[in-house]
Amino acid sequence: MLDTFTLAPGFRAAATACGLKTSSAMAASNLDLALVAAEAPCSAAGVFTSNRVKAAPVLYDQEVLAQNAGSIRAVITNAGNANAVTGAQGLADARQMAALTAYALRCQPDQVLVLSTGVIGRPLAMDKVTQGIAVVASPAAEQGAPAAARAIMTTDTRPKVANTTVTIAGAPVTISGFCKGAGMIHPDMATLLAIVTTDAQVAPDVLHNALKAAADVSFNRISVDGDTSTNDTLLLLASGVSGAAIRAGSDAYAAFVAALSEVCTSLAKQVARDGEGATRLIEVVVSGAEDVAQAHAVANTIAISPLLKTAVHGGDPNWGRVLMAAGRSGAAIDPARLTLAFGPPEREVVVLRAGMPTTYAEREAAALFREDPVYIRLDLGLGSAQTTVWTCDFSKEYVEINAHYTT
Amino acid sequence: MLDTFTLAPGFRAAATACGLKTSSAMAASNLDLALVAAEAPCSAAGVFTSNRVKAAPVLYDQEVLAQNAGSIRAVITNAGNANAVTGAQGLADARQMAALTAYALRCQPDQVLVLSTGVIGRPLAMDKVTQGIAVVASPAAEQGAPAAARAIMTTDTRPKVANTTVTIAGAPVTISGFCKGAGMIHPDMATLLAIVTTDAQVAPDVLHNALKAAADVSFNRISVDGDTSTNDTLLLLASGVSGAAIRAGSDAYAAFVAALSEVCTSLAKQVARDGEGATRLIEVVVSGAEDVAQAHAVANTIAISPLLKTAVHGGDPNWGRVLMAAGRSGAAIDPARLTLAFGPPEREVVVLRAGMPTTYAEREAAALFREDPVYIRLDLGLGSAQTTVWTCDFSKEYVEINAHYTT
């Protein structure tokens, strides 16, 4: 699928290598600069990290989108350096990246969004970036979205792309995006960058609401250990060339949000599955909660538990760890009402029913913990709210990768 | 020190092996049943897990202390099985442990406190426990506090004991305790059990306040990943045989709390240092906060970060990870005011001053990350509140231990 992957109509992508990826940990591809360009000014929206330490490109993009979300032309992204904790020089460098890209594309600097990912606290090598931007905007660059998807990778082991085409308001609408973020918990890697494009015709404020709704059921449902890094950014650009107009509150809007959520969920699950050192995806479903917030608190506490992650890695169906995490989540829990099952619904093994251990077959449960994905489904028995969270297992390789990252 | 370790005057200890420790992970000592007995009824206080899933002995002890905190005679502790998520049978088993101990010691069941630690969700082998209690209360048991300290271990690599003798109100007062809990994050191991004894003369309500104050600066300051397990319990027994009376609000009370805090802090740091797979203690000091709660939020978020723990393990002074954790802690943070130093105060290396990276010597900082303990000191530059939290590094051995625990 990757080789034939394209952005939505109205957008093109390219990538080049300008020498920013020096760490061996980031050598999956030496491409390190990606350009997404729109043929004409388009609508844009962004969802950004809630971390109080925000990288320069995040501050810059928020400023641009506040003023100019109806007229964006490009997104320039570098990997290898997060341009975070870099002070005033970092902000000047982010602005300069936009200005150089605008110059090459013959648009205005405030029509260009900027993304960075990589090591924190080091100044950007602007000589390399300057040369790289000149190349990436030219025919000399490697053309196409697959190259761009590889260029933004850091410790990712594979590019992450997703797309769908649905009929909305009588016209085929494409939603297509790519992202990086090698899993869960490496906030210093400026974990997650995602660029999603569509040819739907959407006003910036409507686009923002749609993106927020889609993020809530996708990127905000993967376990990042409470982590939201300095750089986490999800951007959505809408070219409008399909002619399908998406207005707030319409059926078309609902269909658009559903399709966008599907693409974002696919991307988010790819991120969780590609966690550093991960061997398996874990899907945690919490049902029977009093409300969604409580369901999410429980699911998230289970999903970020190193104990649960290591148990899955070892294929050890240690359900005590699931209960423990639920118990300390802060959500309302009645131990006597908990029911816990492993495996997909059609062949689940219930290990705890109404608070009491069952006489389940341990060997069968252990086998389910060695499949990919691993399903963990906990019913709180208190209400009807439900949520799903995705994470991955936790291996020795995770320690290996993270014990020796910057040096 | 361990060989000569004794409890405070008025208490004796003994231990035996009754066959509850079957897992190889718990084979550091085959002793698995410990008795602490008071020569006469004494005052007692307890601090218990806040986890909503509480083990049977926790529920039982809370009931006993609510009714009978002025007349406790003994604490019976088993390792190998946490008696958690065991329903009504579990509660009956905890009561039976107290009754059997009371019978052997010729006191009443509601004068006996019960502690359990080990695997969750499995019924206690009461035949073994029954035989064991008969032995542990008899001369056939291994006598002395060192044996008791070994008996309560699970994945601990060494026993944890601490004591001090101070003059209070003109009399020498001894505070002496032992605990188990192999580090941070293994709530299914019913992480932390601690029994502290003193010969001070203290009424139960005063004793409870003193214990709460001491726990807040010790056991509540070690990183347990937000984890408080099903079984976490800290008990304090006061025999009064020193004759030193500790009354609320007195200088003697303050001196008692200080000495108790010293013992509890020593025990807590031993737990952090002995984290599963750990090679080094990490001391995180957060200063310059608006209030202690904010300081604690920041310090705790740093201390539970797998990224920071793996960086310390690798001797990699990756300060970006410290900032990231601070930024996502929920506390007030102004990135431009942060100052971060590694190493002990007398030879610290400042890596970030007022939000900007310094030109520090990376080699020097890396050397500080290979020492034991590792010091991480972050000043928020916003106020005058400060706190200290202890944790340990995060190794491949942690994954190894936790990937294959129950099976």
Describe the overall structure.
Two copies of one chain form a homodimer. Helices cover 32% and strands 27% of the residues of chain A. By secondary structure, chain A is of the alpha+beta class. Chain A folds into two domains: 272 residues, L-amino peptidase D-ALA esterase/amidase; 123 residues, ArgJ beta chain, C-terminal domain (Ubiquitin-like (UB roll), Roll), CATH 3.10.20. At the A-B interface, helix 8, helix 9, strand 15 and helix 11 of A face helix 8, helix 9, strand 15 and helix 11 of B.
Can you summarize this structure?
Two copies of one chain form a homodimer. The first copy, chain A, has eleven helices and 17 strands.
Q: Which characteristics define this entry?
A:
11 helices; six-stranded mixed beta sheet; alpha+beta; Ubiquitin-like (UB roll); 407 residues; nine-stranded mixed beta sheet; homodimer
SSE arrangement:
2 copies of one chain form a homodimer.
Chain A: E1 11-16, E2 33-48, H1 56-68, E3 72-81, H2 87-105, E4 112-119, H3 126-136, E5 142-143, H4 145-151, E6 160-168, E7 171-180, E8 193-198, E9 201-202, H5 204-216, E10 233-238, E11 245-246, H6 251-273, E12 281-289, H7 292-303, H8 306-313, H9 319-327, E13 339-342, E14 349-353, E15 356-357, H10 362-368, E16 374-379, E17 385-392, H11 396-403
Parallel strand pairs in A: 3-4, 8-10, 9-11, 12-16
Antiparallel strand pairs in A: 1-2, 1-5, 2-3, 2-10, 6-7, 7-8, 12-17, 13-14, 13-16, 14-15
Helix pairs in contact in A: 1-2, 2-3, 5-6, 7-9
